[in-house]
Amino acid sequence: MQSVGGSFQLTVTTTCGPLSGPATRTGTVLTVGDIAVGASACAELAASQQQWVLAFLKKPIDMAYNNGTLTWTSGTDSLAFKPK
Length: 84
Known about the structure:
This protein is α+β, with helices and mostly antiparallel strands and 84 residues long. The chain is built from one helix and eight strands, in the order E-E-E-E-E-H-E-E-E.
């Protein structure tokens, strides 16, 4: 996530290619606007993973930070980000 001209822009890179879109945060909820999909050519499994990521990002994402881990929850799915 980066600030571009005072607005947030979320960029995600999958094995198929980049995804990006404007994002807003209200409290602990992250909402991603229209998502642009970069050119891609990938195998069936990678394509299904990219579709999962797109579906995850299209719903409001609840963000929580506990014990050094950032967790994003979208519907019944979640992603955990930990420092290396």
